[in-house]
Every structure is written in C-alpha cells, then in structure tokens.
Amino acid sequence: MSRVLYDIRHLTAYDYASTVSSARCVLRLRPREVAGQTCRAHAVAVKPQPRSNQPGKDFFGNAFESILIDAPHATLSIEARSIVDVARPPGPPAAGAS
C-alpha cells in the first residue's frame, strides 16, 4: 500500500477595478472523501469576513460553502488549506517488467 500526505493550499484573489457593494460566492474547495482518500483537515479563510456562511452538499455529495459578503470591498481573498491522506494499492507492473 502506497501512502502520501498532501498539504494543499488554494488561493483565489480578486482585485476589482472599483469598489463592489457585496459578493455572493459558492465555494467548492473541500477535497472529496473517497476510498483511499481522507481529508484530515480543512479550513477556508475569506477576507473580508463574510456575514453568512452556509455549508451544504450538492446533488453529487460534494461539500460546498455559500458565503455572503455584504460590505463594500475592492479586494476579495479566499484561501483554502487542506491536509489529504491518500493510500492506494500499488498499480500493475510496468510493461516488460518482471
């Protein structure tokens, strides 16, 4: 069994041409839990701070967060950090290998 621990950082940054009054976003940033893959830790930081954050799952079972920022802002930063443990059985031998 091969095991790898991934430390993942995803950053989305917006720099608007002029100030916007609000933002509504649906974030799909949490790694999916499947056979051989476990999300050990996950956190999302949003600046400016959202007024509301509603977690949920879509039709396919993917986690999401629906956020609302209702304060004027000229920049928006969304940073997700995840620790993902992946354990897979070894693949088939390479062609020609004995």
Give a description of the structure.
This protein has 98 residues and is mainly β. Helices cover 0% and strands 65% of the residues. It has strands spanning 2-20, 23-27, 37-47, 52-57, 63-69, 73-88. The strands form 2 sheets. A 3-stranded antiparallel β-sheet has the order 1-6-3, with no helix packed on it. Strands 2-5-4 form a 3-stranded antiparallel β-sheet, with no helix packed on it. A hairpin with a 5-residue loop joins strand 4 (52-57) and strand 5. The model has no long low-confidence stretch (mean pLDDT 94).
Q: Count up the helices.
A: 0
The residue-averaged pLDDT reads: 94
Main structural class: mainly beta
Largest sheet report: 3 strands, antiparallel
Q: How many strands in all?
A: 6
What shape does the CA trace take? elongated
In whole angstroms, the N-to-C terminal distance is 19 Å
Q: N-to-C SSE series? A: EEEEEE
Unreliable residue runs: none
What is Rg?
A: 18 Å
Helix content bin? under 10%
Strand order in the largest sheet: 1-6-3
Approximately what portion of the residues adopt beta-strand conformation? over 45%
